[in-house]
Amino acid sequence: MTKGFTLIEILIYLALVSLIATISIASVYPLIDNYYRSQARLDIESETNFLMRKINWALMGAYSINQPASGGTSTIFSVNKEGFSQNPIAFDVSCENLRISLAGAEPIVLNNVNVKIEKAEFENIFQSGLPSSVGIELSVKHSNPKSNASTTIKVKIGLRK
Length: 161
Hints:
This protein is 33% helix and 35% strand. The protein is α+β, with helices and mostly antiparallel strands. Strands 1-3-4-5-6 form a 5-stranded antiparallel β-sheet, covered by helices on one side. The longest helix is centred in the first third of the chain and has 53 residues. The radius of gyration is 27 Å and the shape is rod-shaped. The N and C termini lie far apart (96 Å). The mean pLDDT is 90.
């Protein structure tokens, strides 16, 4: 008598191992997918917060809005900041990146490669007798289309010293 497995036994064991592997992969894949979606959402939120902090910084102590014109909207936003030697401070969107330029120098990209700026629109809101304010609409999307993560922020910020 020889000891070992028959062909039928080997096929049954292979089928069982394949079934266990398939079930394991099917249950782990959604966890991995959810992790990447959560990471994309965190990227979007942190980048959007960073970009809005940069715009708020530019508005802190700003005494004039160069662009857009009073009552108008534009994809370019430019202000002069009191006591700041590198006026004007300008924001624009180019190739799905939000950029900042100080004193007309070469623009610097503010967002990282994980996000794309779908829309950046600025409105110069003028109200008689009140300080100027700026309406901002910023739409940010994750660069990985499978993540489906995006956000849009609409805010109104008044000039303050």
